[in-house]
Amino acid sequence: MQGIRDIYLGLMSGTSVDGIDAVAIDLSDGSISHEERVLGHCSLAIPEQIKSRVIALSSEATDSLKENLELDYILGHLFADCANNLIEQLDLKASDIQAIGCHGQTIRHKPPTSESGASDSSYSQQIGDANIVAEKTGVQVVADFRRRDIAAGGQAAPLVPVFHAHWFGEYEQRKVAVNIGGMANISVLESDRCTAGFDSGPGNALMDYWYQKNKNSPFDQNGDWARQGHVNQLLLTKLLSDPYFDRPAPKSTGRELFNAAWLEQQLSGDISAEDVQATLLELTATTICTAIKQAAPVNGEIILCGGGVHNGALTERITELAHTDVTSCTKYGIKPEQVEAAAFAWLAKKRLENEPGNSPAVTGAEGYRILGAIYSA
């Protein structure tokens, strides 16, 4: 650890609610490779009972202040435990770390739309008490990254495109970064600038739900079950008819729309379970590639990030549909499951330096804004 001067930790729990990822990165100035900047990574599984409660709270059918407060407390401790695990793993002290960027767990996301306008009760809510994280780690925490962008009329999502531009944008040619978590989003990169970015629609969330329902296991390893099925074109057409897919950017989405109830409402007739899974995989691949063609009709390399990269059937289908070079972000010195947590470590640094963390071209905010609230150790 000699010579490292500017270490930040990022904490992220995504729409899938599978677990918390902690990443430590060195953001010191100077010529240091990306591989050297990523100091370490660890994950902490979210207990199944807590996961079920979070997913239930994310549904508009559940509206409990008590449940919100209890889960805020519980997740605060889990985030802190994950950060402390990484600190111990890397043999660091709290004083070695400038700040922890803690995204929290999104439970509700209702951004403005072109139809409603920003005044129509727009909000984005994340839980996981940052006070607890600061108290248990002894490190100052930056959290609440999204609501300032909402206040400025923006979507507050996706926020990772600015980090994508920072990490992947060192070459001149155009690239598109695709993050496949519970939802999927794209970032169109022109050198070190992000010129467009938005949520394309479902990533892993619907596939995971359907697999869990039918196989009683968390996810379809490598897409092997989906490979056993066939795409049902009638169902796919029905799924693709949702107005979200035709809505112009800026736009963002989450479990509020693409959830179990949404899927179950679309199902009818005698479709085998594996055919449904194959169709959901096709939905994710198709909407990602359609979004890329709309935002970057002449594009270069596509860089895949997020847990969905490990679904071999999904990445193969994206490659078939994209008609361009598709690669994993590992080519750029960072693993797929590290990117989002690293992004919030980087955004924490931006906050401490009083620099904007959003991109109006992506979120639709009225201008650049400094994102995040600081919780002192």
Can you give keywords for this protein?
7-stranded mixed beta sheet, alpha/beta, 14 helices, Nucleotidyltransferase, domain 5, 2 domains, 38% helix, 5-stranded mixed beta sheet
How many beta strands in the DSSP annotation? 12
Please indicate the count of domains.
2
Which class of the largest domain in CATH terms?
Alpha Beta
Largest sheet: 7 strands, mixed
The appropriate CATH architecture of the largest domain is 2-Layer Sandwich
What share of the residues does DSSP label as strand, in percent? 15-25%
Query: Mind telling me the C-alpha Rg?
Result: 20 Å
Fold and architecture overview:
The chain has 377 residues and is of the alpha/beta class. The protein has two domains: 7-156 and 365-375, Nucleotidyltransferase, domain 5; 161-324, Nucleotidyltransferase, domain 5, CATH 3.30.420. Helix content is 38%, strand content 21%. It contains 14 helices and twelve strands. The strands form two sheets. Strands 1, 2, 3, 4, 5, 6 and 12 form a seven-stranded mixed beta sheet that branches. Strands 9-8-7-10-11 form a five-stranded mixed beta sheet. A hairpin with a 2-residue loop joins strand 7 (174-180) and strand 8. Helix 7 (205-215) packs antiparallel against helix 11 (273-295). The protein is globular and about 60 Å long.
Quick summary of this structure?
This protein is α/β, with parallel strands linked by helices. The chain contains 14 helices and twelve strands.
